[in-house]
C-alpha cells in the first residue's frame, strides 16, 4: 500500500476519467522509491536499478561500501516486494521511465534523461521520508483467510467444469477440533558443535531400541565405528582427523561411495530430534521420505514426510507405496496411514459414484446463494484421514521432503496462515537442513529454474486456451475488467496474432527443418542467422551483430505506429497489417539491399533466388518472434494482476507464472542473461505427415537455481534479518572437476572415510566390443529409433545366444565364474523403452536363462497393462523394490543408467553388493543441443565469474554487471551453438561434459562395490573406443586417445590430479584422490583398448 499522504498530494494531478488513476499514482510512488535508492547509492544511470535487482554480489568496492553502510540490505528487501521485482524486467522498467517522464514536472521528484537528476517540488515535499520507510520495511508474507463452512448453510463443490454437488452441513459435520499451527517463537540454534562420542551414543541407542521392538537390527553402532571424519586444515592444506562436527552456515561434506553418509544423516536426525530441535532432510524421492519417516517413527520420534499438496498426486504416491513397500510391512508401515485417501464427508457424484480425489471439497466449498468466488473449508478438515500428513506437522521435530516439494509446495492455511513455501518454513524453523546427494539436487534446481510450456499444439495448448478464455470472458459482459488490464489483454491477443503469422512460415519445409535444429531460439538467434547469411558463407558466425539488427533489438517496442526508432519496426507493422507476402518480400528486399550498400561486410550473392527467399523469410520470422517475445513477456509479468482480475484464469497458470518461483527468484540471482524468453520447435513424425506444423514451446530462465543450495543458510539474512539453519551438503561426487552439472562450487570442509572399505576394493574394467554377422562393430550410442534398437538386439545376441556346439552362452559362463553369493549381472541400457525392447527380444532367441531375466520399470508403471506379451509383463521389477532384488528369482537385471545411479543398495544375504558384474550396452551420449545442459554450463560459468574479484577490479558495480551480462550472452550463444557431439568439441568443452558422464557411471558402479567387494565392469558399445573397435580409422592414428574414447577421456581428466606434476590446487588433488582412486586405478588397468 502506498502512503495515504503521498496519494492525497498527487491525486489532483491525475485525471480520474482517464483509466485507473489510483494505479498510476501507485506506479509513480514505487518508481520514485527505486530512483531514491539509486540516488542513495550514488548511481546516476537509471538502468542501474535493473542491475541492482539482478541479485549478484560481485566482489567490488561499491558492494563493500554498501554492505558497510547497511544499504545493500535495502536492495535485497526490494527484491521481495512484487512491485519492485516487476520493475526489474527490462520492458516494464522502460515503460515506467516513459510513463514517469510525461507526468507534470511539478509533481515529480526526479527528471530522467541520460542520468537521474533531482527536481524541487512543493507537492509532498517530504516524500523522501516516506521512501526511507519503504526501503527499511521488512517484506511480510500476506496472511491467508480461513473460513470454515457453517452448520445449517448450503454449499456446493465443483467436480467437473460445469457440474456441482450440493453439500448440506449438518450437526455431525461440525467440529471445533483444529490442526495445530506452525510456531516459530522458540528459537532453535542455527549453529552448534557435535562431539563424535555423542553420535556413538545415539547409534547404540538406535540399535537397542530396535532390539526392544524385536525388529531386525540396523547395526548403526557397527557402521558408525567404521567411519572416520576428517576436516580441512587451511594452514597445512590437508585433511586431518577430528572428533568434532562443527555445523554453521553451509558445510560441504563428501564421502566416497559407501563411506557411511546415509548412516551419519540418520544419526544426526535422531540427535537433533532428541535435543528438541528441528531438522529437515531433503531426499531423492517420495518413497525415501516415507521409509525414513517410518524408521524414525518406530524409534518413537515425531517425523513427518512432506509430499506434494496436489490432491490427485496422493493416489500416485499410494500406488508407488504399494509397489515399493514389502507386503509383509503393509500393516506396520506408517506410509499407508499418511496416504489415506478417504474423505470425511464421503460425497457421491450424480451417478452415485464416490468423488474423484482431485474433486474433494477440502478447501473448495462455495455458498450456493453467493455468486462470489469465496471458498470455505470443510469443518471436518482436522479430523479427516485424507489430511493426516498435516495433523502432526507442527509438532514433528523431523521433516523429510523431496527437492520438488521443498520448492513447489506449501502447507494449507490451517497449518500456516502465511503464504510461505516449505523451503521458507524450514529456513525459519530448522536448526539443521541436510541435502542428501547434494550434487543431484543442484542439477534439479537448475532444471526447475528453466521451466517450459507448450505454447500451441493442435489448437489445444496454453496460448490457445488463454486467448479463448480471455475473449470468452469479455464477451460474457466482463468488459469493465478490460479497463483494469487493457495492456495485458492486448498482449494476449497480439501473442496469438504473432503465432498465427509464424504458423504460416512453419508450414514451409525449409523453415520447419531449420527451426527444429535450434535447441533454443529467439529473435536474436534468428537475426544472427540472417546476418550470417548476408555476410556470406566465409564469415565467422561469432562476429558481432550488424548495427541495423542490433538497433532493432535495442528498441523498446517491436511495433510502433509513430516515431519509429528503427526501420525494422516499420516493416514489422506492415507484416502484421496483412500485406501480401509478395509485396512484403519486395519491401523487405529493398531494405536489405539498402543495408548491403551501407554494410561493406555483406558479401552474399543477392541475385541467387533461393538465398534471397531464405534471407527474407528468416528476417520476417525474426520480426514475428520479437513481437511474440515482447508480448508474452508482458503476459507473464502482469499475470498476477490478470488473475486477480479474472479468477477464472487460475487453471491456466503455468509453472512459469506460479508464485513459488516469484518467492524463490527474490532470494537468488537472476539468470546471468536475464529472465529471457526463448522458443523450441518440435515436429514429430506423425504431425509431419498430417500438417507439417509441430509444437512450439516457450522457455523462461528464472534464476540461478544452484545458488539456492550453496547459500541456503543466508538466503534471507540481509532482506529479513533472519539467519537460516546450519546446512549440510552430502554427496560422493559433488567435487567433480569441471562438471557443469554435479560439481558444487564450495570448498569441501569435511571428508568421510571408511578405510577398511576402500582398501578392499578391486574393480576390473574391460572394453569388449562385438561384431555383427557382417563383421561390422556394433555401436548403439548416437543411433535413434529402429536402428538403435536393432543394434541393441545384436549385442544381446552376442552375449546371450548359445552358439552351435555350445551348451552355455557367453554371459552364462561368466555368471557361473562370479563370486559365490554375487552371481548376478546388471545390463545397463539408456532408457526404460530399451529395457522393454530387450525383454521382448529375449523371447525370440535361444538362451540359458528361462525366466531369470528381469527388467526394471518406473514406479507406478504397470507392465501387464502396457505390454501385450504376458511373459514380458511378468518379468519386471519396480524401481522402488529393486533394493530387494535378492528375493527375486532372477540372475540378470536390465536397467537404464540414470535409474540406478544413486540411492539403491542392492545387497545379498551378507549385506554386500548382489551384482558381481555390470555390462554397459550403451555409451552415455549427450542430447544434441540439450537446453538443460546449456543452462547448467552457463550457471557454472556465472558462478565462477560472479565470485571472481579480479573480474571487476576497480570498476563500479553497475559497470561490472554490464560487462558480466555481455559476456554471459556471448557464453550462452556459444554454448547453444555446440551440438554436444563430443568428437567435435574443443578439449576443454568436451572435458566438461565428460566429467558429467564420469560421475554418472561412477555412481552406478557404486551399486556394485557396496560392502567393499570387487566387481567386473564390461563396456560393450563399440563407441566406447572408436579406433580399437574399428569405427574410426583416422590417418596416422592407430590407437585410441581421449578424443576417440570416453574411457580414456575419463582417465585423462583424472590423471590431471593424480600426476606428481599436477598443477591443480592441493586441496582439490587430495579430494579427487580420496574420492576417485579406485576408479582411476581401474581405468589405468583397463583391458581391451
TrEMBL record:
It comes from Sediminitomix flava. It comes from the Bacteria. This is pPIWI-RE three-gene island domain-containing protein. Residues 32-177 form the pPIWI-RE three-gene island domain. SUPFAM superfamilies: P-loop containing nucleoside triphosphate hydrolases. Pfam families: pPIWI_RE_Z. CDD domains: SIMIBI (cd01983).
Amino acid at each position: 500500500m502506498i502512503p495515504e499522504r503521498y496519494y492525497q498530494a498527487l491525486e489532483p494531478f491525475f485525471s480520474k476519467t482517464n483509466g485507473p488513476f489510483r494505479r498510476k499514482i501507485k506506479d509513480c510512488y514505487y518508481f520514485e522509491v527505486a530512483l531514491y535508492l539509486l540516488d542513495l547509492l550514488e548511481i546516476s544511470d537509471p538502468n542501474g536499478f535493473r542491475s541492482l535487482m539482478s541479485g549478484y554480489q560481485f566482489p567490488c568496492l561499491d558492494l563493500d561500501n554498501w554492505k558497510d553502510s547497511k544499504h545493500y540490505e535495502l536492495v535485497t528487501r526490494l527484491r521481495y516486494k512484487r512491485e519492485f521485482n516487476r520493475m526489474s524486467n527490462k520492458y516494464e522498467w522502460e515503460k515506467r521511465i516513459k510513463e514517469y517522464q510525461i507526468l507534470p514536472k511539478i509533481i515529480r521528484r526526479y527528471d530522467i534523461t541520460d542520468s537521474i537528476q533531482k527536481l524541487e517540488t512543493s507537492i509532498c515535499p517530504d516524500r523522501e521520508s516516506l521512501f526511507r520507510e519503504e526501503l527499511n520495511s521488512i517484506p511480510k508474507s500476506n496472511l491467508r483467510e480461513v473460513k470454515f463452512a457453517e452448520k445449517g448453510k448450503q454449499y456446493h463443490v465443483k467436480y467437473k467444469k460445469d457440474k456441482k454437488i450440493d453439500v448440506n452441513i449438518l450437526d455431525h459435520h461440525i467440529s471445533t477440533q483444529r490442526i495445530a499451527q506452525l510456531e516459530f517463537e522458540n528459537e532453535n540454534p542455527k549453529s552448534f558443535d557435535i562431539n563424535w562420542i555423542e553420535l556413538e551414543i545415539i547409534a547404540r541407542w538406535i540399535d537397542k531400541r530396535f532390539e526392544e521392538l524385536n525388529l531386525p537390527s540396523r547395526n548403526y553402532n557397527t557402521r558408525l565405528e567404521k567411519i572416520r571424519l576428517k576436516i580441512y586444515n587451511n594452514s597445512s592444506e590437508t585433511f586431518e582427523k577430528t572428533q568434532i562436527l562443527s555445523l554453521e552456515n553451509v558445510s560441504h561434506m563428501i564421502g566416497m561411495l559407501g563411506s557411511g553418509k546415509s548412516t551419519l544423516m540418520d544419526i544426526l536426525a535422531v540427535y537433533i530430534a532428541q535435543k528438541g530441535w528441528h531438522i529437515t532432510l531433503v531426499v531423492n524421492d517420495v518413497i525415501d521420505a516415507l521409509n525414513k519417516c517410518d524408521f524414525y517413527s518406530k524409534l518413537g520420534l515425531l517425523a513427518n514426510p512432506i509430499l506434494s499438496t496436489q490432491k490427485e498426486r496422493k493416489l500416485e504416491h499410494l500406488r508407488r507405496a504399494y509397489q515399493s513397500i514389502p507386503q509383509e510391512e503393509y500393516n506396520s508401515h506408517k506410509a499407508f496411514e499418511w496416504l489415506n485417501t478417504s474423505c470425511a464427508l464421503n460425497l457421491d457424484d450424480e451417478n452415485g459414484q464416490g468423488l474423484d480425489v482431485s474433486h474433494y471439497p477440502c478447501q473448495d466449498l462455495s455458498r450456493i446463494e453467493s455468486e462470489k468466488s469465496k471458498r470455505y473449508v470443510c469443518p471436518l478438515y482436522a479430523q479427516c484421514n485424507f489430511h493426516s500428513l498435516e495433523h502432526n506437522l507442527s509438532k514433528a521435530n523431523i521433516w523429510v521432503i523431496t527437492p520438488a516439494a521443498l520448492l513447489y509446495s506449501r502447507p494449507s492455511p490451517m497449518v500456516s496462515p502465511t503464504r510461505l513455501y516449505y523451503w521458507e518454513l524450514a529456513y525459519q524453523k530448522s536448526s539443521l537442513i541436510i541435502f542428501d546427494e547434494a550434487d543431484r539436487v543442484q542439477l534439479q534446481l537448475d532444471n526447475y529454474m528453466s521451466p517450459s510450456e507448450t505454447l500451441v499444439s493442435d489448437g489445444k495448448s496454453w496460448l490457445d486456451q488463454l486467448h479463448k478464455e480471455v475473449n470468452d470472458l469479455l464477451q460474457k459482459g466482463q468488459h469493465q475488467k478490460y479497463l483494469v488490464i487493457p495492456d495485458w489483454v492486448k498482449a494476449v491477443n497480439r501473442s496469438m496474432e504473432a503465432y498465427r503469422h509464424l504458423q504460416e512460415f512453419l508450414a514451409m519445409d525449409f523453415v520447419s527443418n531449420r527451426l527444429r535444429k535450434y535447441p533454443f531460439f529467439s529473435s536474436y538467434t534468428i537475426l544472427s542467422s540472417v546476418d550470417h547469411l548476408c555476410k556470406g558463407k566465409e564469415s565467422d558466425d561469432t562476429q558481432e551483430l550488424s548495427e541495423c539488427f542490433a538497433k532493432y533489438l535495442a528498441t523498446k517496442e517491436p511495433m510502433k505506429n509513430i516515431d519509429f526508432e528503427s526501420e525494422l519496426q516499420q516493416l514489422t507493422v506492415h507484416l502484421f497489417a496483412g500485406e501480401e507476402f509478395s509485396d512484403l518480400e519486395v519491401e523487405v528486399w529493398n531494405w536489405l539491399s539498402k543495408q548491403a550498400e551501407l554494410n561493406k561486410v555483406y558479401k552474399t550473392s543477392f541475385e541467387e533466388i533461393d538465398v534471397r527467399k531464405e534471407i527474407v523469410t528468416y528476417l520476417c520470422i525474426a520480426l514475428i518472434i520479437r513481437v511474440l517475445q515482447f508480448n508474452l513477456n508482458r503476459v507473464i509479468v502482469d499475470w498476477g494482476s490478470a488473475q486477480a482480475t479474472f479468477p477464472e484464469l487460475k487453471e491456466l497458470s503455468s509453472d512459469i507464472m506460479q508464485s513459488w518461483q516469484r518467492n524463490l527468484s527474490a532470494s537468488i540471482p537472476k539468470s546471468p542473461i536475464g529472465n529471457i524468453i526463448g522458443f523450441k520447435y518440435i515436429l514429430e513424425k506423425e504431425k509431419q505427415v498430417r500438417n507439417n506444423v509441430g509444437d512450439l514451446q516457450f522457455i523462461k530462465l528464472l534464476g540461478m537455481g544452484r545458488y539456492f543450495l550453496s547459500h541456503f543458510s543466508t538466503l534471507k539474512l540481509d532482506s529479513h534479518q533472519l539467519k537460516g539453519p546450519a546446512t549440510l551438503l552430502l554427496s560422493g561426487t559433488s567435487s567433480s572437476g569441471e562438471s557443469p552439472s554435479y560439481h558444487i562450487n564450495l570448498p569441501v570442509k569435511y571428508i568421510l572415510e571408511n578405510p577398511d572399505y576402500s582398501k578392499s576394493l578391486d574393480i576390473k574394467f574391460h572394453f569388449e566390443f562385438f561384431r555383427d554377422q557382417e563383421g561390422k562393430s556394433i555401436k548403439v550410442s548416437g543411433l535413434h529409433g529402429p536402428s538403435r534398437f536393432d543394434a541393441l538386439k545384436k549385442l544381446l545376441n552376442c552375449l546371450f545366444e548359445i552358439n552351435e556346439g555350445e551348451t552355455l552362452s557367453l554371459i552364462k559362463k561368466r555368471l557361473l565364474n562370479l563370486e559365490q553369493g554375487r552371481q548376478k549381472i546388471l545390463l545397463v541400457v539408456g532408457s526404460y523403452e530399451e529395457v522393454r525392447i530387450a525383454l521382448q527380444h529375449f523371447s525370440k532367441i535361444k538362451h540359458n536363462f528361462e525366466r531369470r531375466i528381469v527388467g526394471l520399470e518406473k514406479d507406478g508403471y504397470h507392465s501387464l497393462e502396457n505390454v501385450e506379451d504376458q511373459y514380458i509383463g511378468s518379468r519386471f521389477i519396480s524401481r522402488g523394490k529393486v533394493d530387494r532384488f535378492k528375493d527375486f528369482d532372477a540372475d540378470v537385471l536390465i536397467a537404464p543408467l540414470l535409474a540406478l545411479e544413486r540411492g539403491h543398495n542392492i545387497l545379498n544375504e551378507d549385506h554386500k553388493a548382489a551384482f558381481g558384474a555390470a555390462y554397459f550396452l550403451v555409451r552415455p551420449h549427450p542430447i544434441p543441443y540439450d537446453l538443460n545442459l546449456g543452462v547448467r554450463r552457463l550457471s557454472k560459468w556465472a558462478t565462477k565469474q560472479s565470485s571472481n574479484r579480479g573480474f571487476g577490479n576497480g570498476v563500479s558495480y553497475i559497470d561490472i554487471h554490464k560487462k558480466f551480462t555481455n559476456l554471459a550472452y556471448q557464453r550462452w550463444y556459444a554454448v547453444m551453438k555446440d551440438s554436444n557431439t563430443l568428437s567435435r568439441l574443443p578439449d576443454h568443452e568436451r572435458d566438461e561434459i565428460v566429467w558429467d558422464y564420469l560421475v554418472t557411471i561412477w555412481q552406478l558402479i557404486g551399486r556394485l562395490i557396496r560392502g567393499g567387494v570387487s566387481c567386473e565392469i564390461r563396456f560393450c558399445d563399440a563407441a566406447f573406443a572408436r579406433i580399437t573397435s574399428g569405427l574410426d580409422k583416422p590417418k596416422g592414428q592407430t590407437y585410441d586417445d581421449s578424443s576417440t574414447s570416453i574411457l580414456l577421456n575419463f582417465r585423462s581428466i583424472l590423471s590431471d590430479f593424480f600426476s606428481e606434476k599436477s598443477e591443480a590446487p592441493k586441496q582439490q588433488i587430495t579430494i579427487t584422490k580420496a574420492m576417485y582412486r579406485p576408479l582411476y586405478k581401474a581405468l589405468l588397468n583397463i583391458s581391451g583398448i
